């Protein structure tokens, strides 16, 4: 892809149309198209899916060149494990670099298949709704659908010449979600990719007739995006990966304390850890003490059976063992203090200690 041209060929206007939904500037007050995030910087990449460089190349390419949101308004429904693995690895790479991948759910609802990379763990899958807010009939359903956005009769720019087009599909709705994510990344630069997705999910809405749905729904996901609400409402940051499915390669790292955990939540987690380790320590000491007691009793029983007088067992190489009361190696232990005992609760009932 290095050195190649992103200029569209004649009739090849899909990518330009999606870019215009995201960041078009328009041409005055009465002409042109205004994108949802007109100040967003576009990195155009020519990608023909499984027939060209494909996601294993294009997604890392965008990540390595500074993209913070990657909009993939195309997908493939494959049963090839190798292709699926490549898509999954590309999305996992993006998420590991804190880049949000937004993918189209697909336009073949009648087939009912998964569409990648939208279905890859770590991606944000997007379905399409009609102008009335209800799901578009062609939008692929499935557990990988996280959000929906307008996707029918969307006006956008053509790829060549001066003109516009009207499009329908999850490609258009994906561009809207990517643009909303770009706005959020601009306003909240300290939030992770998953926390950006969290703001979109927490402020999503459903048509009135669908408000009884159990979310996430296989058609609507968590609902239709509301960019203004996502920008303005007071939404807790949440965990690092938010609603995104964590790829297996990142699951071990995500076991660390989550970004966005409140001080109170962290304190509770710390107290639980202290109590758990205290119980383990006390249990270990009890086992050690019981073992020593059994060894001493067994030793005395053996000596009694051999006719030896009861008393402390002398070190086998000592010619003149010290009497018990004069043994210089005997350490005096306070009768009521176990030096290995950990307190079951932190001092003053606070954790972590107040500075």
UniProtKB/TrEMBL annotation:
- What ranges does the record list as Pro residues composition bias? 344-355
PROSITE patterns recorded for this chain? Answer: SUBTILASE
Q: What are the protein's UniProt keywords? A: Hydrolase, Membrane, Protease, Serine protease, Transmembrane, Transmembrane helix
User: rRNA-binding among the record's keywords?
Assistant: no
Which residue ranges are recorded for the region named Disordered? 239-264, 303-355
The answer on whether this UniProt entry bears the keyword Transmembrane helix reads yes
**Member of which family?**
Belongs to the peptidase S8 family.
Record-given protein name? Peptidase S8/S53 domain-containing protein
């Amino acid at each position: 892809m290095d050195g190649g041209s992103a200029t569209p060929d004649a009739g090849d206007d899909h990518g330009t149309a999606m870019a215009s939904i995201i960041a078009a500037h328009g041409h005055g007050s009465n002409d042109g198209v205004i994108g949802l995030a007109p100040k967003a910087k576009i990195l155009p990449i020519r990608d023909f899916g499984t027939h060209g460089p494909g996601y294993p190349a294009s997604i890392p390419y965008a990540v390595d060149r500074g993209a913070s949101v990657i909009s993939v308004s195309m997908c493939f429904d494959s049963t090839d494990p190798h292709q699926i693995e490549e898509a999954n690895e590309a999305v996992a790479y993006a998420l590991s670099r804190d880049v949000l991948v937004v993918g189209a759910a697909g336009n073949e609802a009648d087939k009912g298949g998964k569409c990648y990379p939208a279905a890859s763990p770590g991606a944000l899958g997007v379905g399409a709704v009609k102008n009335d807010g209800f799901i578009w009939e062609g939008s692929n359903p499935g557990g990988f659908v996280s959000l929906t956005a307008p996707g029918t009769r969307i006006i956008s720019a053509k790829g060549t010449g001066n003109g516009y087009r009207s499009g329908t599909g999850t490609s258009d709705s994906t561009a809207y979600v990517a643009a909303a994510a770009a706005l959020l990344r601009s306003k909240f630069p300290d939030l992770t990719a998953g926390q950006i997705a969290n703001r979109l999910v927490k402020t999503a809405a459903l048509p009135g007739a669908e408000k009884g749905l159990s979310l996430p729904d296989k058609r609507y996901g968590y609902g239709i995006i509301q960019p203004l609400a996502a920008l303005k409402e007071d939404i807790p940051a949440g965990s690092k990966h938010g609603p995104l499915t964590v790829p297996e390669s990142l699951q071990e790292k995500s076991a660390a304390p989550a970004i966005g955990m409140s001080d109170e939540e962290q304190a509770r987690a710390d107290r639980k850890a202290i109590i758990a380790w205290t119980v383990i320590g006390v249990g270990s000491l009890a086992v050690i003490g019981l073992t020593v007691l059994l060894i001493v009793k067994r030793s005395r029983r053996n000596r009694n059976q051999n006719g030896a007088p009861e008393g402390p067992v002398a070190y086998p190489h000592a010619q003149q063992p010290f009497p018990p009361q004069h043994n210089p190696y005997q350490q005096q232990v306070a009768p009521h203090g176990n030096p290995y005992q950990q307190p079951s609760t932190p001092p003053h009932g606070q954790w972590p200690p107040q500075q």
